[in-house]
Amino acid sequence: MRDWAVDITAFLCAVGVGLLALGTVEADPTTPDAAVFVDALAGGAACCALWVRRRWPVALAVALTVIGIVEPVAAGSLLIALFSLAVHRPFKPVALVAAGALAVAPLQPWLRPDPGVSLIASTIIGVLLILLVISWGMVVRSGRQLVLTLRERARRAEAEAGLRAEQAQRLAREAIAREMHDVLAHRLTLLSVHAGALEFRPDAPPAEVARAAGVIRDSAHEALQDLREIIGVLRAPGEGDESDRPQPTLLSLEALVAESRHAGMKVTLGNRVADPAAAPAALGRTVYRIAQECLTNARKHAPGSEVTLILAGGPGDGLTIEALNPAPVEPFERVPGSGQGLIGLTERATLAGGHLGHGPEPGGGFGVRAWLPWAA
């Protein structure tokens, strides 16, 4: 609808200018009637040709430039065609056609002069009108391109914002998944090991059965507490009470080792940190998670082997943690694992500014070594 309105307006403007020029031609008594008739036909054809200016702007502008040399009634159509050319085409074709129109501008007033206007004045007016419509069309084209550029930038910014939101959600889900693995794997492995012991040793002494059942009960309770804490992180503010359970620190390692010993593991802890209480909370939590995952893996893949945990370091030097265990000497039923624990530990250490390595030991067994920064 907008294009039709613009086309009709351009056609009427060209007709108006053509009628004014035709009136000037008729007012000249030296002009024969046949020339007036031909001018009227040429002017009408030039006005009608404007309906194809969007499809062939260059060809139309060139044709009207040539016709305008001998037909003053086509001047209005020529100006509109030059304006449309400047709007719809880049600078190079516009400059070439405009240069041609400016070059032939003196020819029309020279071939068919207006008795009331001098040749110089007619030439100056024609040149100024051509420059005006060309400049106006280029301004309109620049404005349209600016609007399109701004729209494209807005669309791209919206798409990038959506991608950033998706990436943030994905990272948040990955962080929650790693946290769930680190927190729950330790508890659930205890449940699996002791439930398996009760299954394969139904004739165990009552005291041992009671101890295993107690470990299963405590581990299940701790797993539920950990799960409740993680789900609390997923709740929006105001949906429930925030968990007030304290986070593990470097001082919590003693309790973790005692829990593993109570479950039947052989764990040796060598803590050479002078003041564990002075360790930053984030550092202590990371060390605790690394030790927890190492004990869980040892319980899964090397049951019955002694695990050695060694901590050393202090402020300014960083903190080193080593977890070593020999290869199992007796066949055992493997507990299935996801294989993501050590990857998560490596990422944890990297995010904390340190590094972590793991792999088989030269004499057999498996070792995990990590270094974490500790600011002075």
TrEMBL record:
GO terms for molecular function: ATP binding; phosphorelay sensor kinase activity; protein dimerization activity. The keyword Transferase applies. It comes from the Bacteria. Gene3D superfamilies: 1.20.5.1930, Histidine kinase-like ATPase, C-terminal domain. SUPFAM superfamilies: ATPase domain of HSP90 chaperone/DNA topoisomerase II/histidine kinase. InterPro entries: HATPase_C_sf, Sensor_HK_TwoCompSys, Sig_transdc_His_kin_sub3_dim/P. GO terms for cellular component: membrane. Its EC number is 2.7.13.3. It catalyses: ATP + protein L-histidine = ADP + protein N-phospho-L-histidine. This is histidine kinase. It comes from Streptomyces fulvorobeus.
